[in-house]
Amino acid sequence: MPTSGDERIKASAFIPVSTAAVLLVGSTTLFFVFTCPWLAVTVSTYVPPCSAILFFLVLANFTMATFMDAGVLPMANEDEDKDDDLRAPLYKNVDVKGVQVRLKWCASCHFYRPPRCSHCSVCDHCVEDFDHHCPWVNNCIGRRNYRYFFLFLLSLTMHMVGVFSGSLLYILHHQEDLLKLHCTVTLVVMSVSGLFFIPVLGLTGFHLYLVSRGRTTNEQVTGKFQGGVNPFTLGCCGNLEYLICSPISPKYTARPIKKSAVRIMPPFLKPETDRQIPIIRVRDNGVQRHDLQSKRLSADGMDEPDIKRLNTPPPLHPKPDPKLLKSHLAALEGHYLSSEPILARVDQQLAFQSGPMSSPHQLNSLTLNSHFLTHKHAYRHGNKLPALHSEGLISQKVSPGRFPPHNPLSSRSSFSYSNLVNPGDPNYLPQRGGPPLHYHPQFLTLGLDGSVLQGSPSHSYSPVFMGALMHRDLSPQTLIHREASPIRYDNLSKSIVASIKERQEMEAKDRMLRMQARSQALYGCPDMGVYDIPSRRSLPADSMRPPGSRAPTPPSYGSREFMMSTGILGYAGTRSPLSSASSSSLTRAPRTSSSPLQSSGLQSKGRSPSPSYLPPDRQAKPSSSSSTLPHTPSSSSAPLCLCGSREDINMQLWE
Amino acid sequence: MSTEFHNLQELRHSVSVATKVFIQRDYSQGTTCRFQTKFPSELDSRIERTLLEDTVKTLNSYYAEAEKMGGQSYMEGCLACATAYLIFLCMETRYEKMLKKISGYIQEQNEKIYAPRGLLLTDPIERGMRVIEVSVFEDRGSSGSSHSSSVSSGGISQR
Predict the structure, then answer these.
(1) Where is this chain compositionally biased, Low complexity type (chain B) (predicted)?
(2) What pTM does this model have?
(3) Which end of chain B has fewer beta carbons closer than 10 Å to its terminal beta carbon, N or C?
């Protein structure tokens, strides 16, 4: 039973500290009672007072080391790690005095551990300047109480020396009376102090060495600065000075919260608008217009968060095609809010892709990735995609949990992909029945592959929208279809592009019918970059990013963001929490679950090299996730297989 | 996460937090408490760059003063040791005094500068001195938004 086990564990944690306390107090008391009087008479009258002072010092430091908060860092609020959880990698580098120090993401506390901070598994919290967890005081030793621990060791060593030598002196002078009470007790005290003197002295010497080198026990044991430079040392004297003289840092937990009211009422002041950033806006008709509005000051909050979000993730790996991705992102960014353009764009992409094999596939994936990115970011910021929703375009439902930001892509794309991947698979039998909604019946089947979607129409018609259609804003149709279907990227191989394109067309048609004012135009819109857009309505705002803004950061390939964006191409995530676990296995453990997927070997401490996201890794991922989800037989690497017999699939699927 | 509203919010306005921007620690000088003075781009449209940078620089100077190793901290340590650390029951350490000063400064900055701009600074001590949390409030009269997150405490609303 966990409760009794926990209780037992907790009770057993007190044994060493109780033993230490009993031994310390008991032995010293006996020493004072039986030995000190003789010493006071024989050696000096100052022996008992000095011993007493030393003993009080030992006790005080012992008490402080035991009860003082070591510098526990409180867990991060949900708001703080909301974004980081999705995108950021397991490790982050910072520069400390010219030395690169690696900060690790703490899965329990949900922040990147500051330098020298470590998570104590016994106490289950992160401790600043973590030294070690000492069982003899049953407390973590960290920034705030290291000096007390060190002084405890020093004073205890000196005290033990005093007690031992005093007892020895007494014994030597009373050898003939060894069986008397006084002598017996003194002998016991001497043996106890002598027995524990060696380890205590050893520990004291060890910590003296650590202080001189400016290291913590944790750093010494893990060998962090063995061969390199320790950026935290201040020199031997500086370290000693820091140990003794530094101010005691404050407690972070259990602070009294003082409440003071600050009135926050709109309207809010805005910064001066004299800063004009020329914004090049490419009109639908290809005419460029320089918009001198400060882009940041526009009321359009839609693109800002997108840009911001894309800016925030620190790029970790050299991106495979940064220019390509950036161009796609730049081209597509302005359109993410409008459903038609996106659809059209996807159409175009797919159309484009169906031609050449390998590189377009890459292009397609990157483009779609960028879409996912934009959608994800936009969605996360609560940006509505009103066009999308009002048109009832989507959405698939993201599985409950925190995945929506992570996995909609993968799960949704799986519907289309998996359907196409195994035409022969009974699970994937394409059904040509009438779609419940405006979706192609083929996609109905997809949903059923894991019997996840029961006739639900809403499997996103396009993987692009998956990211956009996070759980939050759901059209009524989409709300019906919540489910978590496994992704079968291993079966993506061939028909993905074709199916997507087909789906896009169907949905575009549906949307056309429902939307009233849609301008069909823009074929070959210049801002689309590489592809043509069969139909899109005129974009309301900048279709290109203002030049002043940072380019949306291409997904860092060590991050979950990239995972998401490339998930469409074969990432074997799932709609369950496990999917987020697997997706984050290369980044950080998800907040909600620590699934076996994480330990499947996909977990990488560092950043995963970006190429690893391509098929070889995807091979591994499906296998790891297959333990939890029904999985179609994996095929060769999905994305590359797209270049395969696409035409064949097209032939098959398109009547 | 429940949506909490600010203490003195008028309900009809119901300003809620749109997003939170985090100013991270600057570890380039070691583990001493410093925050990055780099201006977060998300706040570009809400506040002038110089105002926030000044605030962060002032906070950094306060923290540096709090963590300064000097005569006062040494005396404090010796006195504490001499009294078997019982002095901590009666006396407030220098760092704690500085923290109170910092808290007052943040409060003042919030009232004068940030609240009029729809922002709110949270005392970093509440976040374990890891970040300065800047809550960005929606710039609208009525919120009507379903996605608003909970309001940061900022030492202002109760947690």
Answers:
(1) 142-159
(2) 0.56
(3) N
